[in-house]
Write a structure and sequence with these properties.
The complex is a heterodimer of chains A (about 550) and B (about 425). With about 550 residues, chain A is an alpha/beta fold. Helices cover about 50% and strands about 10% of the residues of chain A. Chain A has helices at about 5-20, 25-30, 35-40, 55-70, 70-80, 110-130, 155-165, 185-190, 215-230, 235-240, 250-255, 280-285, 290-310, 315-330, 345-360, 385, 390-395, 415-440, 470-495, 505-520, 525-545; strands spanning about 40, 45-50, 105, 110, 145-150, 175-180, 200-205, 240-245, 260-265, 335-340, 375-380, 400-410, 460-465. In chain A, strands 1-2-13-12-10-11 form a six-stranded mixed β-sheet, with helices on both faces. Chain A is globular. In chain B, the strands form three sheets. Chain B has a six-stranded parallel β-sheet, with helices on both faces. A six-stranded parallel β-sheet of chain B has the order 11-10-9-12-13-14, sandwiched between helices. Chain B contains 16 helices and 14 strands. Helices cover about 40% and strands about 15% of the residues of chain B. Chain B has three domains: about 1-185, Rossmann fold; about 190-275, N-(1-d-carboxylethyl)-l-norvaline Dehydrogenase, domain 2 (Orthogonal Bundle), CATH 1.10.1040.10; about 280-415, Rossmann fold, CATH 3.40.50. With about 425 residues, chain B is an alpha/beta fold. The chains are: A alpha/beta (about 550), B alpha/beta (about 425).
C-alpha cells in the first residue's frame, strides 16, 4: 500500500500540523518529568528522546505506523534469512556473524553459523600466528606491520573500531602497527610505504568481490613495492605477504593469494555490514581476538533486544521512528552525528556509509518512485571539535538539523585526575550543547534582551545516546543499534536498504573514460567532460616536453 | 661467623655453600613457605658444575642448614641474594631485622635491584646496622670459582663503620687481591649495571658487524681477529653468534627497564637488547632464506640447547626462540644437548614436533639441515663423513662459527655461518 494512504501516516501528518509550532522550551515547561517519559534504557545503553519535538501521542502514532508497516514481521523475516534484499535476491544475515558458537541459522538448507564459526576459527589461527610473531616475511623476520587494503565497508568499519578500542590492545602480544589504505589514487600508500620495512609488512586485501578496482590498484602497488625491495619471486611474496578477506576465493587465487591465506565471507554479508566477519581481521589484530569476540557478543545482545522487545521500548525501533518523524513530518533533512569521545572520531564517517548507502533511495521495493523523503544528509565529527566548526550553523543557521549526541557516562576510571576532569569537561559540553540547541536563549536567564546577533532560537531536536562505558561489548551494541535503526526506517519507507545500485554506474563510466584518457579523445562526450579531458592531455604533454 | 642467607636462586645457593665452605655457620632461608623442595629439584643447582656436591658436603658437615619455617635465627650478618623481582621481599626481611634495641647488624645486598635500592633498604634497617651492596658477579657454569676466587670485589657502602665487618666477611676469598674497590652503594649498583651493559653492547656490535659482513661478503672471523689485536679494543666478547641469554641476563633486562622507565627516548642499550632478541632467531632466518620460506614439513637437527656451554640452563636461550619458530612452521626438530635435555623436555611438554636425540649423530639422521646453536666442546670436530651419510640435505647453519668453513665445504656441505 502506498505510504500516503496508510492511516497512521495520515494521522501523523495531521498531528504534525497541530504540533508544528510547539517549542521544546514549552514542552519542558509543561512536563517536569519529560525525561522520565521519553528516556529508554536497556542494559548498558540509555536513549534519551526527551529533547525531540514529540509528545506521548507522537510516539503512540509512530508505533502505530510501525505496526501498520508490519515492522515486527519484517524483523522476523530479516532474522529468518528471508531474501529481504529483493533486488539482488539475497538474505541479509550480518546477525549470523555474531551468533554465539553452537547456535544455528538455516539459509538455503545450510547452517550458516557453523560456516561463520569455521571462518572465525581460521582467522583466529592467522591472528595468533601474527600476534605471536610467528608469521614470517620473506627474510624470515616476523611481521610487525599490517596494512589493510580495502575501501567502503572493507575499511570504514574496521578502521572505526580499531580507533575506538585501541586501548584494549592486549599487553602480552607483539604490538602490531595496523594501517588502513583505501584511496584509489595511491596517496595513502605513497605516504605510508617509505615508513615501512617491506620484509616485516603484511597486507590484507579486503574485498568481497575481489574486483574492486580501488583495492586491486593499491594491492598491485603494494606488491610491486615488495618485489622491488625483496628481489624475490612473486610466488614467495604472494605466499608470505598477502592475506585475502573475500567472498570470491577464485578471484583472490587468480590474483595470487594462496587458498590457505584466504578468509571467507559470503554474499549474504553486505559490505557495510561486514566488520563482524573476517573483514574485521584488523580489529582482531589490533585489539585481540578475545575483544573481537566481545564486540560480536555486544552486537548479538542488541540483535536479541531488537528481535524480542516490544516496539515501544525497543531502542533501534525508537531511534528509527524518531528519524522518520523528523524527516517526513517535521521536514528536517540534515542529521549531525556528534560523539563526545575522541575514540569515536571515525564513527560519523562510518555512519555516513551505513545510513546513506543503505537508505539513500528514491524507488520503493516495487520499483516505483516514491513521493516522500528518505535518508537525510548525514555528517559529523567529535562534538567538542565541531563546536569550533559547524555548530554556528546548528545554533543560528537557517537549516533545521537533528543531532545525535553520543557519549559514555564514565571514562578514565582509575586514570589520572586531570584526564577524569577532561571527561567531565567533555560531558558538560555535551549536555550544554544539546540543552542550548533545544531551549535556545531560555536556557540562560541572563540572555534576556540580548541583541539579535546573540539570539538563539533553539528548538533543534536531538537524541542523546549514553553508554555506561565504551568497551568492545558496548561498541558492538552501539553499531548494531544503528544497523537496526537503518532497517527500521527502510521498512517504514518501503525501500530495500541492502542494495546500492547507485554506486555501480559510476564505475562503468570511469572504466570507459580511463580508456579515453589513455588513447586520446573519445566520441559522444558532453562538452564539459570533453573539455576537462583535453585540458589534462595538454597539461600532460606540457610536463612531458619540459622533462 | 654466623650468616643468614636469603633467597632460593643460584646466587643464594652459591653464596651459602661457599661461605660455609670457609668455616662460617650458614643458615639459608629459601623464603619458600611450607614447601622445601629436594635440592636436586631446585632449578639451577643441578645445572651448575660441582654445586650440588658442595652443598651436600656443607650440610653433612653441619655448617649449612636449610631454615625451617619460623625457626629463630640469631645472627648479626644477613646476606640478601634474591631475584631482581623480589625487592618487596627484601624490604620485608630488612624491616623485620630493624629493631630500636639492636645495633651493629651487617646486611649484604647482592640483589640486582634498581640503582638506589641499597639506600632504600638502609632506610628500612634504620639504626640497627648497615646495608652494603656487593655486586653479584655470578657466571653460570663457573659460579663456585667466581665466588671463591674473584678477580675483583667491589664493596658499595655508605658508612665507613661497615667496612671492617665487610672486609672480614670477604677475607677468605680476597687474600690474593690487591685491594677491595670501595665506593658508595649507588655507584656500585650503577657499576654493576654499566659492566653488563658494556658487554651487551660489545656483543651487539659484533653481531651487527657480522650481519653486515654477510651482506658485504666479508668473513667476520678475520675481521674479529684484526679488531682484537688492537689493544684499545682487545679480544674479549668479540665473538659473533646467535644472541646471548641466561638467568642473569634476564635480571639485567628487568633492572634496565626499571631504570629506563625514567627516560623516554630511545637508547643505545634498548636497541642492543631488542636486537639481541632478533639475533636469537638468526639461525632460523638463515634456514628460512636458504629454503626461500618453504620449510613446512622439513626435518631439522639442533645441536645445543643450553644458553651457553657448561650449563644445563635454558633460561632465555636462543634455542628456545629457534625451536618456537620452527614448530610454528610445522618443522620437525631433532635436538641434542649434553645436559639441557630434561630442562627442554619440561619446557616443551608433549610437543609432537620435537624429538630428543641421545647422541649428536642420532639428531642429524635424515635432516634437511643441522643448526649449531650452543658451542659445546663435543660439537667442534664431528665426523663429517658420518654426518654426510646421515643427513638428507648436507646443510650446516653454524650459529657460533665453530666449524672451518673451507673444510666443511670441501666435504660437500653447504655452510652458513654468522658473518662468513
Amino acid at each position: 500500500m502506498a505510504l500516503a494512504s496508510i492511516a497512521a501516516w495520515v494521522e501523523l501528518q495531521t498531528h504534525a500540523n497541530e504540533f508544528k509550532n510547539a517549542h521544546l522550551k514549552d514542552l519542558f515547561r509543561q512536563d517536569a518529568k519529560r525525561f522520565d517519559t521519553f528516556s529508554f534504557s536497556y542494559d548498558k545503553y540509555l536513549l534519551d528522546l526527551s529533547k525531540q519535538r514529540i509528545n506521548q501521542q507522537t510516539l503512540g502514532k509512530l508505533i502505530d505506523l510501525a505496526h501498520q508497516q508490519e515492522l515486527p514481521s519484517w524483523i522476523e523475516r530479516l532474522f529468518n534469512a528471508d531474501k529481504v534484499n529483493d533486488s539482488e535476491q539475497r538474505a541479509a544475515l550480518h546477525m549470523a556473524l555474531r551468533q554465539p558458537e553452537g547456535a544455528s541459522l538455516h539459509h538455503e538448507g545450510k547452517d550458516v553459523v557453523s560456516d561463520v564459526q569455521a571462518s572465525l576459527a581460521k582467522m583466529q589461527i592467522l591472528v595468533e600466528q601474527i600476534q605471536n610473531a610467528q608469521w614470517r616475511g620473506y627474510d624470515g623476520r616476523p611481521i610487525s606491520s599490517v596494512v589493510n587494503i580495502g575501501v567502503g565497508g572493507s575499511s570504514l568499519g574496521p578502521l572505526m573500531v580499531c580507533d575506538a578500542l585501541e586501548k584494549y590492545a592486549p599487553a602480552d602480544t607483539v604490538a602490531l602497527n595496523v594501517y588502513f589504505v583505501s584511496s584509489m589514487d595511491g596517496s595513502e600508500l605513497e605516504k605510508l610505504l617509505p615508513k615501512l620495512d617491506p620484509a616485516t609488512t603484511l597486507f590484507i586485501v579486503a574485498s568481497k568481490t575481489f574486483t574492486t578496482v580501488d583495492t586491486l590498484a593499491n594491492a598491485n602497488t603494494a606488491r610491486e613495492w615488495l618485489l622491488a625491495a625483496s628481489q624475490q619471486s612473486i610466488e614467495l611474496i604472494n605466499q608470505h605477504h598477502f592475506i585475502a578477506a573475500t567472498a570470491s576465493p577464485s578471484a583472490a587465487e587468480n590474483w595470487g593469494v594462496p587458498v590457505s591465506h584466504q578468509l571467507l565471507l559470503w554474499d549474504w554479508v553486505g559490505g557495510r555490514y561486514s566488520l563482524w566477519s573476517v573483514i574485521g581481521m584488523p580489529i582482531a589484530l589490533k585489539v585481540g581476538m578475545t575483544q573481537f569476540r566481545e564486540l560480536l557478543q555486544g552486537a548479538h545482545q542488541m540483535d536479541e533486544h531488537f528481535r524480542q522487545t516490544p516496539l515501544a521500548s525497543n531502542l533501534p525501533v525508537l531511534l528509527g521512528l524518531i528519524g522518520v518523524w523528523n524527516i517526513n513530518f517535521l521536514g528536517i533533512h540534515a542529521h549531525a552525528i556528534l560523539p563526545y569521545d575522541g575514540r569515536l572520531a571515525q564513527f560519523p564517517a562510518y555512519l555516513e556509509q551505513l545510513e546513506m548507502e543503505s537508505n539513500g533511495k528514491s524507488v520503493n521495493r516495487d520499483g516505483q518512485r516514491i513521493a516522500y523523503r528518505t535518508c537525510p544528509v548525514l555528517w559529523g565529527q567529535v562534538g567538542s571539535n565541531a563546536q569550533h566548526a559547524f555548530y554556528q550553523l546548528l545554533h543560528q543557521g537557517t537549516e533545521p538539523v537533528m543531532c545525535d549526541f553520543i557519549t559514555p557516562a564514565v571514562r578514565y576510571d582509575g586514570d589520572g585526575d586531570e584526564l577524569q576532569k577532561q571527561h567531565q569537561l567533555s560531558l558538560a559540553n555535551c549536555l550544554a550543547q544539546s540543552r542550548l540547541l533545544a531551549l535556545g536563549d531560555s536556557s540562560m536567564s541572563e540572555n534576556d534582551g540580548a541583541s539579535k546577533f546573540k539570539h538563539y532560537d533553539g528548538n533543534q531536536p536531538s537524541t542523546t545516546l549514553m553508554l555506561d562505558t565504551l568497551t568492545p561489548e558496548t561498541l558492538g551494541g552501539l553499531i548494531a543499534l544503528y544497523e537496526h535503526k537503518v532497517f527500521v526506517q527502510s521498512v517504514i519507507w518501503q525501500i530495500n536498504p541492502f542494495d546500492q545500485w547507485g554506486v555501480e554506474q559510476g564505475k562503468k563510466v570511469a572504466t570507459s573514460l580511463l580508456a579515453q584518457l589513455a588513447n586520446g579523445l573519445g566520441d559522444d562526450l558532453d562538452s564539459s567532460t570533453d573539455g576537462l579531458l583535453r585540458h589534462v592531455q595538454r597539461q600532460t604533454r606540457g610536463v612531458d616536453s619540459e622533462n | 661467623m654466623r650468616i643468614n642467607v636469603y633467597g632460593n636462586g643460584l646466587s643464594a645457593w652459591v653464596a651459602a655453600a661457599c661461605l660455609a665452605k670457609v668455616g662460617n655457620n650458614v643458615v639459608i632461608d629459601e623464603m619458600a613457605g611450607q614447601h622445601q623442595r629436594a635440592l636436586a629439584d631446585i632449578s639451577g643447582i643441578g645445572d651448575e658444575p660441582g654445586l650440588l656436591t658442595l652443598i651436600q658436603q656443607q650440610i653433612t658437615a653441619g655448617r649449612l642448614v636449610r631454615r625451617q619455617r619460623d625457626a629463630h635465627i640469631a645472627t648479626t650478618i644477613h646476606w640478601l641474594a634474591l631475584q631482581a623481582s623480589e625487592k618487596v621481599i627484601a624490604e620485608r626481611v630488612v624491616d623485620a631485622l630493624s629493631d630500636p634495641e639492636v645495633t651493629g647488624l651487617l646486611v649484604i645486598n647482592q640483589c640486582n635491584f634498581a640503582v638506589g635500592a641499597t639506600e632504600e633498604l638502609q632506610v628500612c634497617l634504620a639504626g640497627s646496622g648497615d646495608v652494603v651492596y656487593v655486586p653479584d658477579n655470578l657466571q653460570e657454569g663457573s659460579s663456585i670459582q667466581g665466588f671463591t676466587q674473584p678477580k675483583r670485589v667491589i664493596l658499595g657502602l655508605d658508612n665507613d663503620d661497615a667496612l671492617v665487618k665487610a672486609r672480614a666477611l670477604f677475607r677468605p676469598f680476597t687474600m690474593n687481591l690487591d685491594a677491595l674497590q670501595l665506593m658508595s652503594s649507588r655507584e656500585a649498583e650503577f657499576t654493576k649495571f654499566a659492566i653488563t651493559g658494556m658487554l651487551a653492547i660489545r656483543l651487539g656490535y659484533i653481531n651487527e658487524l657480522a650481519n653486515l659482513a654477510d651482506l658485504l661478503k666479508v668473513d667476520i672471523s678475520v675481521v674479529q681477529e684484526g679488531m682484537g689485536s688492537d689493544p684499545r679494543v682487545g679480544p674479549h666478547y668479540l665473538s659473533p653468534g646467535c644472541g646471548f641469554g641466561g638467568q642473569n641476563f634476564d635480571a639485567y633486562v628487568s633492572t634496565f627497564s626499571s631504570i629506563l622507565q625514567q627516560q623516554r627516548e630511545g637508547s643505545l642499550l634498548k636497541t642492543v637488547i631488542d636486537e639481541n632478541e632478533q639475533q636469537k632467531e638468526l639461525v632460523f632466518r638463515k634456514l628460512w632464506q636458504h629454503y626461500h620460506g618453504d620449510i613446512q614439513g622439513k626435518v631439522v637437527a639442533i645441536w645445543g640447547a643450553s644458553f651457553k656451554p657448561g650449563t644445563a640452563s635454558i633460561d632465555n636461550a636462543p634455542s628456545l626462540k629457534i625451536i618456537d619458530a620452527l614448530i610454528s612452521q610445522d618443522v620437525q626438530v631433532q635436538v641434542h644437548d649434553p645436559e639441557a635435555m630434561s630442562n627442554l623436555q619440561q619446557y616443551y611438554p608433549a610437543e609432537p614436533l620435537i624429538r630428543y636425540a641421545n647422541t649428536p649423530l642420532e639428531a642429524v639422521n635424515g635432516v634437511d639441515a643441522l643448526l649449531l646453536v650452543t658451542e659445546w666442546p663435543e660439537y667442534w670436530s664431528p665426523n663429517y663423513a658420518d654426518l654426510l651419510k646421515l643427513m638428507r640435505v648436507p646443510l650446516i647453519v653454524d650459529g657460533r662459527n665453530i666449524f672451518d668453513k673451507t673444510l666443511v665445504q670441501e666435504f660437500g656441505f653447504s655452510y652458513l655461518g654468522v658473518g662468513r
